[in-house]
Amino acid sequence: MAEPVLEIHDLRKNFGALKATDGVTLDVRPGEIHALIGPNGAGKSTLIHQICGSIPPDDGTIRLLSKDLFGIGMAGRARLGLGRSFQISSLAPEFSALRNVMLAVQARQGSSFRFFRSVMGDRTLIEPARAMLERVGLGARADVPAAELSHGERRQLEIAVALALEPKIFLLDEPMAGMGPEGSKSLTRFLDGLRHEAPILLVEHDMDAVFALADRVSVLVYGRVIATGSVDDIRRDPEVRRAYLGDAA
Fold it and tell me: Are 124 and 131 within 8 A, CB to CB?
C-alpha cells in the first residue's frame, strides 16, 4: 500500500473545557477522496484550520509526504503542496477571476507580487490561469471581478486558484455550498477526475456528493472520529446513523 500523502495522528485541540479536536487520527492516500462529515459544531472547521496551520494543535502530529508540519505556517504548508479551498471565500474580490488565478500561478513560480501591474501581459501567467478557469467551467467569466460572480462561481474560482498552485493534496471545505443541483452534479464529475492529480480531503454536507465520490469516509462528532470506512460501512454503522445520518442513510 502506498504511503499516505497526509497523516494526522492523535490530534488534540481544546478551547477551555471544550474538546474541539479529541484525539483525531486519519490519513489521505494517493488517488483517493477521503470525505470528512459530521453535524454542525462537530469540529470539522477547527480540524481543517489545524491542518492548514491557522490554528496550532495542543498535541498530536500532522505530516505531509512524511514531513512533520509542526512550526510551519500557512504559507509554508502551501509551498509544500497543501492546496485549500475555503468555506469562507479568500479571493481578492476587486480582481477579475483571471487575475485571481494569475496570482496563484505567480506564487507557484516564486515571483514577487510587488510588480503585478507590469506582468498583466505575461503569457506565462495568463495562459495557465486561463487553462485553470476553463477546467472549472469559468472560461467565459475570466474578466468578471470575483465580487460579481455568483456564490457557486466563486467556489469554482477557488478550486481554480488551488489547481494553479499544483498541490500534492487538495483540502476542499464544502465546495458544493451555494450550488444548485446542476452545479453540484457538474462539480462532482470534476472532483471525481481531480483525485487522479492529487488526493482530496473533502469536507462536505451534501451526502449525495459524498456518497458518489468518497473512497473512504470519516465521521466527526464532538471533535472525535466515531467511524472511518467505505461508504457502505458508514451507511450501515449504527453509531453513525444515530449521531448523524439518521433515516437518510
Answer: no
